[in-house]
Amino acid sequence: MTKRPTIRDVAELAGVSKSLVSLVYAKPHTVSEARRARVLEAADVLGFRPNLVARSLAGSGGGFFAILVADLHNPLFAEIVDAARLALAAAGEVSLMTSATLPRLDDQHFLDRRLLGLFHDLRPKGILIVGSVPDMPDIASLALEAPIVVASAIPDGLPQAQVVRSDDAAGMRLVVRHLAELGHTDIAHVGGAGGAVAAARAEAYREAMTELGLTEHIRVSTSDYSESAGFGAAGLLLDGPKPPTAITAVNDLAAVGAMAAIASYSERTGEHVAVTGYDNTFLSGLREIALTTVDPGNAAIGSLAAQLLLDHSGSAVESEHVATPSLVVRASSLIPRVRNASPG
Q1: What DSSP string describes 98-110?
Q2: C-beta of residue 95 within 8 angstroms of C-beta of residue 68
Q3: Cα separation of 65 and 290, whole Å?
Q4: In what order do the strands lie in the sheet with 246-249?
Q5: Do the beta carbons of residue 272 and residue 247 sit within 8 Å?
Q6: In this predicted model, what pLDDT tens digit does every residue of 227-265 receive, in sequence order?
Q7: In CATH, what number does 7-50 get?
Q8: Distance of CA 306 to the CA centre of its chain
Q9: Cα angle value 241/275/183 (rounded, 5°)
Q10: Which residue ranges make up each domain of the chain?
Q11: CA 90, chain centre distance (Å)
Q12: What interhelical angle do 168-181 and 196-211 show, nearest 10?
């Protein structure tokens, strides 16, 4: 063909109606597998692809799902996005992923509001927000036009959104109890900053310590999810008058930062400090890191988030889906105890 193929050309080659071809691209899960395959095969032969911008300007919606990621540098979010995109692709859907934020020189991120205008114009079929995006209430207006699902975050200011996240209370209870069973009593936490999830995990740490009768040892050194913040927060604990024998961190990146501070501390003092993370990203499994961490079920969270978008009926839904985490024990928490006595 010398001109760009159209939906009419695809319909003629596949032996179906134009409306069915449109349905394959707009709502593929509503078309039988056999007819969908016939249409897609014809489109492939002709080299046809739908013009998403033209469809949006025509008022029929962009025909794609938008994925907004809080921080492209956090490997946790990459695992969730991969699982979500695979689930959407398996349903014949197209997804467009971008960072929801822009970085500043101080390593803090702020919402890129230009994207909100872009998605207002392109009208995606649904929006997946992955991670704790700053100024999340500003995204609420998009919920009037498309369903929103939030993964691995607490959507403050987005009451219409469905949520898929880890049970933070259960996850922090796992690491605190694990360290206590190894004989640690002076267990500190690095975290509490960076959003509602960080605050929830810090509170869960306090609750777990209280349940074990370790209230007097509760200490939270403020850190967000970054490696640099974890390094600084752990350094403050280790340079204090009574360094802890174990540190739980808000996530794996902050835990890696804490491990660097601990390495320097151990060189100076000869003493060891156990450390745990949260998220079970690929970093935690690297042999040089070997980080004990909480596995929130990242692939399952991403797949379920995608399914919630696909299943959305068009009416406002408010619900939360909490995944049960598990503990992955590695060398970082199994270091020899030096200074603490066995409990009780």
Answers
A1: EESEEE-TTS-EE
A2: no
A3: 36
A4: 220-223, 187-192, 246-249, 274-276
A5: no
A6: 999 999 999 999 999 999 999 999 999 999 999 999 999
A7: 1.10.260
A8: 13
A9: 75
A10: 7-50, 65-165+297-322, 168-296+328-333
A11: 21
A12: 40
Extended beta strands in 70-186, E state:
95-99, 101-103, 109-111, 126-130, 148-151, 162-166
169-190 pLDDT tens trace: 999 999 999 999 999 999 999 9
**pTM across the whole model:** 0.76
**What's the start-to-end Cα distance of the chain, in Å?**
82
**CA-to-CA distance for 81 and 203, rounded, in angstroms?**
27
Backbone angles phi, psi at 152, to 5 degrees: 55, 40
| CATH code for residues 65-165+297-322 | 3.40.50.2300
Strands (E), the chain: 65-69, 95-99, 101-103, 109-111, 126-130, 148-151, 162-166, 187-192, 220-223, 246-249, 274-276, 293-295, 319-323, 326-328
Alpha-carbon span 142 to 124, nearest angstrom: 10
Cβ distance 306 to 321 under 8 Å? no
Q: Do 206 and 191 meet the contact criterion of CB atoms below 8 Å apart?
A: no
